[in-house]
Design brief:
By secondary structure, the protein is α/β, with parallel strands linked by helices. It is built from 32 helices and 31 strands. The protein has a seven-stranded parallel β-sheet. Strands 26-31-30-27-29-28 form a six-stranded parallel β-sheet, sandwiched between helices. About 5% of the residues have low confidence.
Amino acid sequence: MLRLLLPPNLAAAATRDAIAVRVELDLSVPPPPELLAGLAVLQRIGVKPQPISLVPLKRRQLAEVVQALKGQPVFFWLNQPNVPMAWSGERLSDVADHLIEAPAAPPKPLATPAPVKSPPRKAIAGKPASVDGSEHFLAIALPGRESPLHLELWELLKAHGFVLEPSNGKFWLRDRHKTLNFLARHWDALRDHFHAEFSENFQRNTAAIRMAEATATATESGDGYDLALGLSAGAAPEAAIAGAIATSRSYVADGSTVYLIRPEQVATLQRTHQALAGSPEAPGGLRRTHRISRARVAEAEEIVVAMAPHFQPPGTWRQRSEALRHLERLTPAPVPADLERRLRPYQKLGVAWLWFLLNQGLGGILADEMGLGKTLQALALLSARISSSSRPLRPSLVVCPASLMENWRREAARFAQNLRTLVHHGSERQLAGPTLAVTDLVITSYGTLARDDELFAAAEFDLIIADEAQHLKNRRTQAARSLRLLRGAGRFLLTGTPLENALDDLRSLFEFLMPGYLSAVPPGTRPADRAWYDERLRRQAAPYILRRTKAAVAPELPAKIEQVIHCEFSGEQAALYRRVQQTAASEVQKLADNGASDARLRLAMFTELLRLRQVCCDPRLLPGAADSKAESAKLEAFRELLDEIVDEGHRVLVFSQFTSLLELLRTELEREGVTVCQLDGSMSPRARQAEVDRFAADASIPVLLISLKAGGTGLNLTAADTVVHYDPWWNPAAEAQATDRAHRIGQTRVVTSYRLICAGTVEEKVLALQESKRALLADVFEASEEAAGRFTLTELRDLLT
């Protein structure tokens, strides 16, 4: 399912640190485990999950990919796409030697660029080009006329003043200045592109010619590094090199040795200075020293290595950089053993990444795709922090949408029992010194944070974690401003929304995450320069964003992920639920006092249970309450969930037993510009099939709303890979059958199933029942005599109270 096709001119491309690799990926089948490490590396260096990609890789990047795919028959030459490259032990034959990094010692001056064995010339038939001469003249013979390079080389030579000598058929250049300038600009091209043969006479006459080389030296200073960049030509003074460049002379002498100065090398040095200075208009010059903070180490190394492949930074620099580039080398976080056993391998890697950033005084964005356990990884980090500390710590803070607070509280109670947790929300807000002294984790909402911003700003926290970070993309919101005021030892963001192209969002997120790390785009920046700043932002942000998709970690996942999202009522909806509950109890008691039969009591209880379930779903479902203004906790949680689903490009089936609820959802979604399809029991079989076909054929439609009666059986909906059960079906078998509309033969992706449950209600009581009791509830809400016979009055009263 994975093929990497390498260029035939790999040797030459490796020296330029620009290797064009064709990546072919079969997305229709899950990747086998032995390819996961390689796929993870490809994803981290920017290869998108698409069938065919052509990506330029640096030598070290390709070496990392080869190491991750050691022994796998996935490498091919581009001109031999059907023959896998052979492995010799752990080395990839004909490739490994070209990917070897330079030794740690400072490099010596480069030897004369000697001719190398040309790549296969299948495309270049006939006589090759040849080069003779010295530093004073050149005599070049064109390749045969049948060669596609014949005309190209002829035009190049004519443009540089070469003159054809009819007597020998060679093009001559008899001028030392022009000869050295031509060699500085085109020696590599003669060898690598035109595949010219260099005569022994030429090699002997040019033995004293060297190439000037870029130099980079980093020294640790305080909490950062001083990085000096320049150009070296033996012992030639910098003024001599600068003078040569200023007068369009691409060479300089150091005694009897001539150093060639390649114009593209000078241009690369200039771009490197600009990139490190943070401005496309920064002055260049030959030698400058840049101040590099610890946060910029990974970004700076990528920039510098492109210019100076032999760059040897200090040990602390290399440690920080390699940890961010090679996640598999990270030291595991000290997560408590019982929680560590629950983590999947990719989750352990995520926690190790967060732990490393924390210990380096840095922040990060955990941007795993929805369903991969970002909350669990964050709790593991918090648990590791508490369990490994030898001294009392300040409490940590989690800020999330109000609809997710109950979920955070329950997940903490389930997975991180060592955390003493406080929920600061609603009328019972108690963020005070005595309370904080006995608290490890405070959970609050963005709305509460904004209302109590002065209270939160006065407190000091250990770690600050902001969930659903897309809420901060507008830096001008009160929530974003309040979050930036918080004080903490470590800052992290969680989001399932892809961030690669949301550049303005990234700037806002990093204002909280690592204040001052990203420089603002100067006012009045020209559109032509805007792209430069955008690319710089991507490069700076990349080391601090960790995103794994379900496709990348599929072998570590079950075929179906099931998750319960607990929704917490707002004050108004909670009060409504209590009123309906009290009225139900009163009505039932009145019937009992009047001597009603058991059958009538059961029927009355069924009716009241129905009303309680309607309040849970949406207060507008109650009879006569279509215009109710009471908020729906489920609707808010569903919006949060759907935003993430749509942003990630997933498609979702939404099930409910209430057709009227589906109509409400359809109205809400279409008002927000979301296109939906809908199936319900009132539709004819032909109409239902037409709607199924429309959903399957149009990938731009993200949502299919389905009622219980319309979607119970006979549907194959593998175009979706996410299922939301808006209200519980009580019968686990029936609910599983609905989920299997998406999770069935033909589905190639991991299916994620969510159940929305209102906390502290009849819905939660049903989930708490034993499986035998849950099975009895399969038909209870149909209020049939058969269903009535399955429950005692006591059991029904337990559900109502």
